[in-house]
């Protein structure tokens, strides 16, 4: 993908017409006085960083559970990598960097302990009550579950930040009103009833770059962690032409390079190539659509910041490799099954005796609630746990806790 480097926003200090304007935000659900020193999007980002939910990410699984090694990514380090890439994309495209960074920092708030394994386990036990979706849980956290401010529950983020959180992967409903990825989770519909996030349209470009930054980050660092674990080998990477070319380039420039440095040289080239591909695609899409406002981006009918078709093919090939050799590796599946049983056991224990949920702010009232409401509170409590806390709690409540290594 050819880049127009003269159109890049490095150091320009000026937003494009199609960027989100922090001084013309659609506002917050609960009106607040403006800050004399920070834009609304800066304040959103800062609030996100200071949350309990953000701190908990350091002990939540990305792919490999923390007990397997200190050098693997956690949900927090993944989030930081996504934010760095999102900010780089935003700067290059003359977007609002603070909004892009904020959406990237908040996008995984709703993830459970033990990564997608925990999400699957919670969805299964909560399916009779609407199921569990980490994106909807992120929205619940920032609009309800974080209890820090005197005037409101949640963080009272701007409309643009909430829109980016909910829609960064695209519209949730089609023009005909059907869910684009199945049923729209009830927490999102309930919130939109009081603060419409327009889930039938695309999100801002800031949210779009945060979404594609997520793909770039985990495509790269899951390879890195896979090589460290031994589940991936350099020979497996050779099967993907894009990665094979990068490896050949590194070998030609640095013959006999030690494996750890060789891996890093591949990864940094992978990130650079993917970032530049997104920038080039976005520049071309912007020229085609000619948006003159952030709302024009929302009405474009397609994402404007994503991979080119050639890179999308590579993206799918990398994901297929990761699924085959890491995510579905027999040893990983064994650990996943044990992790799922920990959350399932805790769910049933808390449903039977809600008083076991130490520190839950409504613990004294949950027992008398209808089953559906009680289940949602238990789901909130479990989703907020770190890997470490879930394991230690299970050991306290049960005679045997499965091994996760």
Automatic annotation (TrEMBL):
A Pfam family it matches: HD_assoc
InterPro entries cross-referenced by the UniProt entry: dGTPase, dGTPase-like, dNTPase_2, HD/PDEase_dom, HD_domain, PHydrolase_assoc_dom
Domain HD: 75-219
Keyword list, A-Z: Hydrolase
CDD domains: HDc
Lineage top rank: taxon: Bacteria
PROSITE patterns: HD
Entry annotated with the keyword Cell membrane: no
SMART domains to which the protein is assigned, alphabetical: HDc
Keyword Hydrolase on entry: yes
Protein family (similarity comment): Belongs to the dGTPase family. Type 2 subfamily.
PANTHER family given in the database record: DEOXYGUANOSINETRIPHOSPHATE TRIPHOSPHOHYDROLASE-LIKE PROTEIN, DEOXYNUCLEOSIDE TRIPHOSPHATE TRIPHOSPHOHYDROLASE
Protein name (database record): Deoxyguanosinetriphosphate triphosphohydrolase-like protein
